[in-house]
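Tip: read the tokens left to right.
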């Protein structure tokens, strides 16, 4: 029922112990309050009798009080003490199975005489014993109810966790359904949202991995077929040295293309390793400025312009720097690749309610938004490429817990906006310089 480190077991023990302690403390306080109230009442009763006798009455003698008090189950005596005793003395005594409460009250201080009023309180003691017995029985019943309540409550609290565990245990890479967060208790909604996000990442990973394997096989099969066909054609008949050289050049070119594909696949493996690197706290704006300065020289060399606009002045975030660099580098490479000469690429950042928004805006040919360009080996435009850059960027963004997006410009200028949005919940915003 319980594991070695069971949260439910710890909860049960703490709830039962605290409830039992509360019951014992409350019951003890109640019993002592009842006992004190009864004794105070008896004390006040004896004190009133003693005051009436001490003050005297013109129409009634001390013998009359004695007769009356005997009728009321009181034993009233006038006793002589050897020394003066100013305080009123109240004490309890026991004779056999009977208990008595005795009060000494000054009667005649000159003669050192005191009124001794005694009342049997055996019935009162028995009543208190019955009260204590009943309280003990009620405590046992209350303790059992607390145990039942604690078991039921702990079962109710762990029920959503068991439900989540049952649903997750029945899932595999072929059958993964998101959890209905609205059916979970309010306290478990964040956990459900996190699990759904993880399920979505796993689904994308499985989907893209399948596409990656299929695409890799296809991309490598084509150049291999070209090499084989070229060699077969070359070997059909004897050719001139120049023709053999052309055939070898074609083979080398195809091999170079295959090497590019293999290098990109190796980059995927390196990126998966980078996701396991320990995150560090860095200023994202400083990283953007450094990358912009590196690519600014490349843009000028291609007769293109790279502009920058960074807001705020600083934005601290805890992340893997290599993953962030990979995303920004891919954005800038694609933007410069598809932007014609004499045109401009803009790298900018801005702060919103979600966090830090990083955008790379180009003046290229735009994209077909109906195509999933983050899938492996997806290519658009008139430029060469393997089609793995955006796939790597998407994987890096998922690892950072960031949002990545590609869309066409909507300001009347042809081009693409590649955006990355970092979550401020995992970041610390630096004060803006004034």
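Filled-in amino acids:
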């Amino acid at each position: 029922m319980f594991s070695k480190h069971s949260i439910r077991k710890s909860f049960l023990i703490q709830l039962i112990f605290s409830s039992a302690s509360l019951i014992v403390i409350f019951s003890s306080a109640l019993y002592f309050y009842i006992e004190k109230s009864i004794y105070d009442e008896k004390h006040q009763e004896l004190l009133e009798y003693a005051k009436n006798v001490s003050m005297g009455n013109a129409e009634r003698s001390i013998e009359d009080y004695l007769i009356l008090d005997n009728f009321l189950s009181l034993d009233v005596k006038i006793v002589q003490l050897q020394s003066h005793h100013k305080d009123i003395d109240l004490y309890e005594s026991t004779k056999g199975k009977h208990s008595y409460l005795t009060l000494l009250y000054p009667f005649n201080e000159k003669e050192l005489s005191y009124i001794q009023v005694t009342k049997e309180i055996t019935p009162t003691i028995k009543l208190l014993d019955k009260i204590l017995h009943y309280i003990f029985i009620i405590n046992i019943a209350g303790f059992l109810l607390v145990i039942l309540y604690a078991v039921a409550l702990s079962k109710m609290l762990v029920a959503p966790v068991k439900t989540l565990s049952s649903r997750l245990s029945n899932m595999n890479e072929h059958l993964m359904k998101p959890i209905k967060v609205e059916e979970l208790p309010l306290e478990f909604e964040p956990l459900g949202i996190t699990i759904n996000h993880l399920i979505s990442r796993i689904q994308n990973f499985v989907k893209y991995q399948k596409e990656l394997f299929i695409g890799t096989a296809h991309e490598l099969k084509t150049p291999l077929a070209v090499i084989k066909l070229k060699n077969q054609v070359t070997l059909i008949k004897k050719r001139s040295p120049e023709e053999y050289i052309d055939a070898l050049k074609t083979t080398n070119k195809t091999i170079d293309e295959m090497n590019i594909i293999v290098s990109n696949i190796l980059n995927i493996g390196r990126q998966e390793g980078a996701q396991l690197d320990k995150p560090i706290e860095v200023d994202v704006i400083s990283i953007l400025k450094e990358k912009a300065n590196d690519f600014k020289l490349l843009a000028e060399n291609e007769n293109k312009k790279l502009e920058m606009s960074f807001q705020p002045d600083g934005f601290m975030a805890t992340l893997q720097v290599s993953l962030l660099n990979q995303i920004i580098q891919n954005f800038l490479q694609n933007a410069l690749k598809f932007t014609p000469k004499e045109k401009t690429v803009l790298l900018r950042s801005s702060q919103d309610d979600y966090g830090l928004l990083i955008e790379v805006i180009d003046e290229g040919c735009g994209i077909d938004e109906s195509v999933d360009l983050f899938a492996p080996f997806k290519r658009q435009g008139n430029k060469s490429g393997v089609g793995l850059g955006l796939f790597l960027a998407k994987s890096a963004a998922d690892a950072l817990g960031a949002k990545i997006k590609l869309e066409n410009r909507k300001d009347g200028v042809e081009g693409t906006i590649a955006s990355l949005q970092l979550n401020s919940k995992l970041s610390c915003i630096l004060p803006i310089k004034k």
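The first helix runs from residue 7 to 55. The chain has three domains: 7-144, 198-273, 280-429.
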